[in-house]
User: Fold Denticleless protein homolog from Cinchona calisaya.
Amino acid sequence: MENSMAQSFFRDIKSRELHGFRVKKRPYIADERLEPSQLGAVAVEHNGETSPPMALSFCKSNKNTHILAVTDESGYISVYNTRLNFPSSSTYQQNTEKSRILEWVAHDNAIFDICWIKEDTNILTASGDQSIKVWDAQEKKCVGALMGHTGSVKAICSHPTNQDILVSGSRDGSFALWDLRCSKNSSHRLCISSIATVHEAHVSPHGRRLRCRKAASMSITSVLYLRDEVSISTAGAVDSVLKFWDTRNLKRPVTQSCPSPDTSTEKERRLHGISSLSQDLNGVFISASCMDSRIYLYNVLQLEKGPVKTFSGCRIDSFFVKSSISPDASHMLSGSSDGNAYIWQVNKPQVDPVLLKSHDGEVTAVDWCPSEMGKVATSSDDFTVRFWNVQGTCYSNSRSPSSIRRRVMALPSMERKKLFTDKDVTRLKSTTQICPQDAALHIHSPEPTIACEISTPESQRSRYSSNFAVKENLDKTPETASRSPSSVLNPPSSLKRRTIRDYFLVT
Assistant:
């Protein structure tokens, strides 16, 4: 009886090692039946005057993902309900009146980027007036102004888990870190200063010689806060190089990567700037829209290899044309200067993309709905924003590229033998056995029950701290001593964890 139970247990462990856990896979758009259909379109206008849209973003929380925020060149924020029925007989203006939930003037200049934070209660806006503002979305009230850039703010991105922290990129050539809880000027409570700034992050080798082109060559066009919570990716208008930074040490980038097409020389590759960056929900892939009319896909753990996929077919003639990878990393969506939007299958980049046709001007900002599979939004210089359903008639059962799950590996033979022979209850610790949530795996056998504990890095740190009586004051900076929010970016060495920095040599 004992022998049969042991064999059954090890057969199960072996199956897990070879095939991983059987988890519910998130369905993604079917490869063969990608049939786009337009759900509706709204006109971007205010008091009868049209304005070209600049940026758009769906809400992030599941209950609000049908809500879309749009910014434009006139400095307005407009919020739309995309779940409404838009009759084909209705005009764009009628659709606007019907679906627009909120509208207000946020800046006196164009708004280049927008971001929902804090369960969609607040909105961040980046503007040509050199400021970033924090808005209470319900009250349409400014609750914070981030000042410090000396050029138009082109891009913003919030921290993946602590949304009081964000990064911004500007035309002045710098990117800055901000903490919404820090205000150095008590007389102006709404004004917030940056907690760290890196100047000339992307500088042209000829920038100092060509003074008239210096501003253009220095511009930061896109920033991303990576899922490891301490790394940042930046891109600029000067070249096609992606740089990666550790927020705990911003003196120099950790590593960098760029496309390496066989048909181009190194000099030619570096002349094309990047208009936008995006990452999938798991943070495995980063896409970069390049001014050579290609979109490059990078694996964050294989950056030294350059792009793992390349998508072509669209036309990127301006830095307003953006692209976005789908949350499950199965498809790539991009605007284009030819008036169409393009969708590629990530696993089949060589296959002709699906075209979303109906815009009458350059298609600029695009976005995927986080939870309504197959819903996308596109904006254009024709002063409209359009909603599409590209999911087709069914879903594919195959896995998307980023659906890889962490799995518990089979124990070494000696530990397996020890597991069934030791009389004492033993706690097995492994730095490679990590589960998304705190959990305990209980194994039933004729011997006393043995619990194999699998825990998150946070719980491991708590356990080790209690065992060794680590005290806070052993490794404190002035910031951590005062429990300042800025200490999030400078944790004690005992709390530092593996990040993207650990996978690359410092160059």
Remarks:
- The mean pLDDT is 78.
- The first strand starts at residue 28 and ends at 29.
- Residues 28-393 form a domain with the Methylamine Dehydrogenase; Chain H fold (CATH 2.130.10.10).
- The radius of gyration is 25 Å.
